[in-house]
Design goal:
Layout: H1 4-19, H2 23-36, H3 41-50, H4 55-66, H5 72-86, H6 89-103, H7 110-119, H8 146-156, H9 164-177, H10 182-195, H11 200-210, H12 217-230, H13 236-246, H14 255-266, H15 280-293, H16 301-310, H17 314-327, H18 342-352, H19 359-365, H20 376-388, H21 399-407
Helix pairs in contact: 1-2, 2-3, 3-4, 5-6, 5-7, 6-7, 8-9, 8-10, 9-10, 10-11, 11-12, 13-14, 14-15, 15-16, 16-17, 16-18, 17-18, 18-19
């Protein structure tokens, strides 16, 4: 078995032979290289060029590496795609830097090259291998026309009437006209939450809203927890299976599964509801797989941060929270009235709360605005979360935390 350095030399020699038209020799060198580098994407790409039977193996290795969000390829792809989706050029540039680092010495890592080009606003490079098919990326919706955006805004701004059925259809039309309208998605989510209490599809409207407002992803998980506690006689797994059945291939509909297993770790002693208990690493890997497919779920890095903390990796936890605060610090709510970054800061308090000593959690607490911005519904739920959730128990008696509870409204 060749050493890794020898494997890279064999691989590079194989690419040189392919350029000269010596396909058989290129394939033989690729196979030799893979004996020492079984998951090397460049060697697998070379082999797939000369042997179509190797494509599934290439795809498997690509999914494995792209799904590791602490690695430069997985994280770089996520940041570039999220930066482009949300119009955050600095985020896309940060991801492109990671991809360039991953490509150093491995020029055949085509997805990295493709997204580096996209981040720079250059035309897409073509390649005969269907690289991106392996990742099953969730595509961005086609942009709405100015007329469609205006019509959607008018429908969403109409408010609620005495006819909730008509309101729901109006907000749905607004979302169909402009799938990226945060106001339309917000109105539909709140209306369905009130009129279809307990429906998992209605609850998922808040996840769809979090796809447009990344800072509010942690709020979706809180709503899931509140809903499942309110109907504690039923198992969360019932909703998990219902969600999967509604849209088996949509990452958004897999979020209840991650939420159930995440809450089973955070509230390990809970019996009503009986959350699923598993290993933090398994749950984080499941979440990473969703993020790798749908970059608009990047706000769920806040949940990933807590899973990293539970794994004993506080540095990884802070890295994910820092990224969200840096990239989306100026994000406002659906009505563009209030900054919503306080949700990420609150999650940082929750993530740090169990650390000893408590100083890191209290330092995060001091960064919260006073009073916290909120609407009526979120305000009541947030009040309950802060006052009653056992996650804050380690800092509950601290004067700073008591001051927050007394003054946050």
């Amino acid at each position: 078995m060749p050493r890794p350095a020898d494997g890279r030399r064999l691989r590079d020699a194989g690419w040189a032979h392919l350029d000269l038209g010596a396909r058989d020799r290129a394939g033989a060198l690729a196979r030799d290289a893979l004996r020492g580098l079984p998951l090397d994407l460049d060697a697998l790409a070379l082999l797939a060029r000369v042997d179509a039977a190797a494509v599934p193996r290439l795809h498997g290795a690509l999914r494995l590496e792209a799904g590791e969000l602490d690695g430069p390829l997985g994280r770089g792809l996520l940041l570039v795609r999220a930066g482009l989706a949300y119009g955050r050029q600095a985020l896309a540039a940060e991801g492109a830097d990671l991809l360039r680092a991953r490509m150093a010495g491995d020029p055949g890592v085509f997805p990295a090259a493709l997204f580096v080009a996209r981040a720079a606003g250059e035309p897409d490079t073509t390649d005969p291998l269907p690289w991106l098919d392996a990742l099953a990326l969730v595509p961005e919706p086609p942009p709405a026309s100015p007329e469609e955006r205006a019509d959607a805004a008018a429908l969403a701004a109409g408010g609620w009437t005495s006819d909730p059925v008509a309101d729901r259809e109006r907000f749905r039309r607004a979302c169909a006209l402009d799938p990226l309208s945060a106001r339309a998605r917000w109105e539909l989510a709140h209306l369905r939450h009130r009129t279809e209490a307990g429906s998992i599809d209605a609850l998922l409207e808040f996840a769809r809203y979090a796809r447009l407002k990344p800072n509010t992803a942690v709020r979706f998980v809180q709503r899931v927890n509140d809903t499942w506690k309110a109907v504690a006689a039923s198992s969360p797994r019932v909703d998990v299976e219902r969600a999967r059945a509604l849209a088996p291939d949509d990452p958004t509909y897999r979020l209840p599964d991650v939420a159930d297993r995440y809450l089973g770790l955070v509230y390990a002693g809970s019996t009503r509801p009986a959350y699923t208990r598993g290993a933090p690493l398994e749950v984080r890997r499941a979440l990473d797989a969703l993020l790798a497919r749908d970059a608009r779920l990047i706000g769920f890095l806040a949940v990933r941060a807590h899973l990293s903390e539970l794994l004993g990796r506080p540095g990884a936890a802070e890295r994910d929270l820092d990224l969200l605060e840096r990239a989306f610090a100026d994000e406002r709510d659906a009505q563009e009235k209030h900054l919503d970054g306080f949700w990420v800061t609150l999650q940082r308090v929750a993530v740090r709360a169990a650390r000893r000593p408590n100083r890191p959690a209290l330092e995060a607490l001091a960064r919260l605005p006073r009073p916290l911005p909120h609407d009526g519904s979120d305000g009541n739920d947030l009040d309950n979360w802060l006052r009653r959730d056992p996650i804050f128990e380690p800092i509950r008696r601290d004067p700073d935390f008591q001051d927050l509870l007394a003054r946050w409204r």
